[in-house]
Amino acid sequence: MNRSKAGGAGPASGAAARPATRPAFPAQIPGLTSQPAARSAAGAQVAKSGSSGKYGATPAAAPAPQGGGLDSEAVRLALVRRLVAQGLQHPAVERAMATVPRHRFVDSALASQAYEDISLPIGLGQTISQPTIVARMLELLCTGRPLPLGRVLEVGTGCGYQAALLSLLCHEVYSIERLRGLHERARENLRELRLPNLHLLLGDGMAGYPAGAPYAGIVAAAAGPELPGAWLEQLAIGGRLVAPTELSPGQQHLVLIERTAQGLSRQVLDAVRFVPLKSGLG
User: Fold this and answer.
1) d(C-alpha 48, C-alpha 56), whole Å
2) Fewer CB atoms < 10 Å away: N or C end of the chain?
3) Mean pLDDT (the chain, rounded)
4) How far is the C-alpha of 89 from the C-alpha of 43, rounded, in Å?
5) How many CB atoms lie within 10 A of CB 144?
6) What distance in Å separates the CA atoms of residue 217 and residue 260, rounded to the nearest whole number?
């Protein structure tokens, strides 16, 4: 178990150490309404691994986005409405997913699939997680807690999509990626969004990022047989850790860890499928 400092990790150039502001949500998101009655029954179902949705079968695909204007906004809102129908209940998570343009984080050849509820390849053997799983993890992080959250660590930046969502839910986000190619790609994907409270790091995510600790939340985008001790050590009292874990060979589940003054509690939740957690730089 690696508990050393994150090798090679450091804030991306130009990032402020403690930004005073964070991006704001739009005042209103047209066409997005929550319907608690419709989602309450769906919310009792458990996810299955693969491309199944969090609360059941994958819904029908949204129309292909048509660039960065109103058409892409329309299909993005259609996706969020489907997530709500499947069980998403947290209004701030709904707004974040309705705000961040997912198609900008995938290859242009895959843009027409960006608002389907599926994972997509982003290169170097990695994927962008399906929207239901992303929404589920963010909801677990946020539910029952005052927002914005404080400082949050994301392990596995990937293409940068979830980091952008987190920036709308937290005061400050540190996102660490071990693969230089993906780290650079995420920087490029996020450049136009101008998120002053988001810091991109290149380093060994299994070591966390001690310089930013303690964290109100830690979210991981890769599954290992156990949670690294460094993550648990860097979690603040009152903080939550949401991560996929391989509890037995071929069987991954989301695990929710909460730290209280009395210690750590653990819940084993939905069955999922993530790429394996690895150490070192690549």
Assistant:
1) 8
2) N
3) 81
4) 9
5) 6
6) 13
Find out whether 272 and 250 touch, Cβ atoms under 8 Å.
no
Backbone angles phi, psi at 273, to 5 degrees: -140, 115
Task: At 15, list the tokens.
Answer: 């990032």
pLDDT digit string, tens, across residues 148-173: 999 999 999 999 999 999 999 999 99
Catalytic residue among 72, 129, 167, 175: 129
Q: Has 129 been annotated as catalytic?
A: yes
Q: What's the length of the chain? A: 282
- Interatomic CA distance for residues 252 and 32, integer angstroms: 32
If we measure between CA atoms, which residue out of 64, 70, 94, 92 comes closest to residue 82? 94
Confidence of residue 71 (pLDDT cuts 50, 70, 90): low
Contacts of 85 (CB under 8 A, 6+ apart): 35, 38, 39, 42, 59
Residue with tokens 């660590």: 153
Angle at 65 between CA 198 and CA 83, to 5 degrees: 70
